[in-house]
Amino acid sequence: MPRFPSSTREVPATGQVPRHVAIIMDGNGRWATSRHLPRVAGHARGVDAVRRTVEACARKGVEYLTLFAFSSENWRRPADEVSVLMRLFITALEREVAKLCENGIRLRVVGDTSRFEPRLRELIAEAEARTAGNDRLVLSVAANYGGRWDIVQATRALLAARPELAADPGGIDEDGIAAHLAMAWAPEPDLFIRTGGEQRISNFLLWQLAYTELYFTDTWWPDFDEAALERAFESFRARERRFGRTSAQLAASEQG
């Protein structure tokens, strides 16, 4: 299982297309406000951008796409906006799963879904089961997710699985925690994209982004399209990913 590349592990292969792309889809509300529309109109239009991005990533050969749809802090937003977001999530699951299956895309939802209403939890379970056999692209939707929550729940899960570590915490290591993270089955992201002009990772995949290339764009999420995605990929291709090594070491390993 792919993990954080420590000094004792081989450097992961890098190519022209990132294997795993993670995105914070920011700017929906500001997109709407700039057009004198209610903020919820921006979230509705953002669903179209999700569809475009999923299709573009699949065409380009991305294997994993992770979208930050709803953070554990988003419950602090106005109640009517949260309600609309939940309804949009339900509608998207009802309408889009068939198309995901047609295109060989697997859906996984990561986060603490226990707070969601029963109908939404039911649709999530159905969608995950229905798409489980697809292997062209894994689309992960982070919902009621937070990076700090992920690390805490992984640590708790590790201690539940190995209670002897409570008396001997020296036995707790990175691999033990990583194995219990919400996305332990996926390689860590190669490229992180945040739209909307903000330049922070906002409690998203805190553990997994340790060596990820970060890309920020002023483009609001509803306007994000394949051309914008390609600009992010162009930036990614220009990076030298050393994972703690020197440029000379990387050059020597490539020649070997």
Topology:
Elements: E1 20-24, H1 28-34, H2 39-60, E2 64-71, H3 79-102, E3 105-110, H4 118-131, E4 137-145, H5 147-161, H6 174-178, E5 191-194, E6 213-216, H7 226-237, H8 247-255
Parallel strand pairs: 1-2, 1-5, 2-4, 3-4, 5-6
Helix pairs in contact: 1-2, 2-3, 3-4
In short:
The chain is of the alpha/beta class.
Describe the structure.
This protein has 256 residues and is an alpha/beta fold. The protein has helices at 28-34, 39-60, 79-102, 118-131, 147-161, 174-178, 226-237, 247-255, and strands at residues 20-24, 64-71, 105-110, 137-145, 191-194, 213-216. It contains 8 helices and 6 strands; from the N terminus they run βααβαβαβααββαα. It has a 6-stranded parallel beta sheet, with helices on both faces.
